[in-house]
Give the backbone structure.
Amino acid sequence: MLLSVVVPCYQEERNVARTWEAVEQATRTLDVEVEVVFVDDGSTDGTLLALRALATREERVRYLSFSRNFGKESAMLAGLGHARGDAVVILDGDLQHPPELIGQLLEKRREGFDQVVARRNRTGDRRSRTLTARTYYATVNRLIEVRLDDGMGDFRLLSRPAVDALLALPEYNRFSKGLFSWIGFPTAVVDYDNVVRAEGRSSWSLKRLLDYGIDGILSFNDKPLRLAVYLGSLIALLSGAYVGWLVVRTLVYGVDAPGYVSLIAAVLGLGGLQLVFLGVIGEYVGRIYFESKRRPHYLVKESSGLPDLAGTAEVAHTRGTVAG
């Protein structure tokens, strides 16, 4: 069996060599051939230099470097597209995904599972973050058509059929957690303890986490649009009842001074609600807009070997050779 390990990297200059050493150590005694595919997601530090040096020393290491930062979703897609293995493991380049688990993932694969997910616990996380995460997953699972589980992220092993299924999904707006669940296939879970980042700082800001959470909600359902229909219908019904009550009250008691506070409250409340749902509709329209452009998910400016995936934009040089 050829095992591919895909490692998306962004600003991981100090972790590249450590990640390779940890993967090499973890797979040394396994009965598999191993290749490691690093994907540099447009880093501005010395990540690319570190990858060049590593690929020169180690023939089992290959790398891709994007022309700019396209995001982790694109980096994972590129890694999967260039991985040649019968099974593929995805892990982060900051060593928060312990390579020591690869052996356990392989054991489950040999038992017949096409997806083997490494699920982390939240040991060491702040209570506020744990509560927020659990609230998010409880909410989102009521909305979307696939199931997302807390602690089950990108760290997983995929069989070749599972990888091919993911690569067959061409959508531009990708939410991998949902896609992993959507493709199905027999799935097993391996639990592990939360690991502190080895070097550097995470690039996931609060805004990026919030955007990622919104992507998860909008990528796999149209319930927010349906909610707008239901809520709009309810407000129209209540408004009609209120108007009817005002007419009857006027006929019985005559006209009195209008309620300024209630009028302002109604205008501001309904105006705000309309803006919220215009934003929801705009999100869906924006996604249609980006999908219709059919732009590539990423552009590769450099790689350590000729591209393996036809059809994805490989527009720059491959160690001095133009690939188009």
